[in-house]
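Predict fold of Cytochrome bc1 complex Rieske iron-sulfur subunit; 352 aa.
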Amino acid sequence: MSSQDIPEENLPSTQDEVHGGAVTTKVADPFADPGMPPHEHRIQDIDERAAKRSERAVAFLFLLSMLATVGFIASYVTLPVDKIIYVFPIGHISALNFSLGLTLGVALFCIGAGAVHWARTLMSDVEVADERHAIAAEPEVKAKVMADFREGAEESAIGRRPLIRRTMFGALALLPLSGVVLLRDLGPLPGTKLRKTAWSEGKMLVNQNTLQPLRPEDIQVGSLTFAMPEGMKEEDHDFQKEIAKAALMIVRLQPDNIKDKRELDWSVDGIVAFSKICTHVGCPISLYEQQTHHVLCPCHQSTFDLSDGGRVIFGPAGHALPQLRIKVNDKGYLEAMGDFAEPVGPAYWERG
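Predicted 3D structure, encoded as tokens:
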């Protein structure tokens, strides 16, 4: 293909130059930078009434987002989980799921649409070309960046458009409440459930194997007995949940071997009762060493000294085993004088 076949308007332009009497022809750069196109003003730039209309439109979108967020929370609180509705063309769907999805979608969309409309109609749209520079900017460049930032903030009109500013902050402040409300789906609030067990004043200690109330003479020195509160039955629907907190281990020590004064005061003739639940991750403790009075958790080898307030002497457990205060009632049976003074298991790190 020869140059004669190329349209004349597509050929690079030429320019003749004279150097010392000789004429040379210089071809212009076909890829020269054309520069920035001339800036065209928007209607909002020259008409304040149009700018006010855009401002009201943006504020309306932010207000609609706020209302949708309130609707999300109201739907979550008021709509039952099992309510089914028909929505065309989806079909039958959970009213709660449909309402939550619709309101949250509207809240997010309106914030995004409001921000886009704000940027396209009210913020400055003047294109600025700037030279690239090294990553480690000079102080002059940093100062220019900060100046550009301040200029951009001024040109965004956020200071001169209080209606937009307030409604945007309101929409952004309300939207996170949707996520906070959803935290309720983690389960019901625990209340005092972690602090309370099935033990209470006057409840007799029942042997977990024979299901018979325990007398002091039933506990031999060196033996380990597992007990539970009277009234609990394995066929109860909440038995596993309750026994997981109330499981008790009972040992009989020589009173002279008990080092902790409170432990001695809470015991009966050397019989001490401690929670069976390890304070590390809640495993049941079942290994007892008679000579040292130590109990060992089989999961991670946390070791507790039952002669010294159930304190930890080895392993990852962070707390001593809670002790149950016991006495002998009028019928000669062992009974609790209340609940554990501390939460059982790994319920809390700080137990003050």
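The mean pLDDT is 86.
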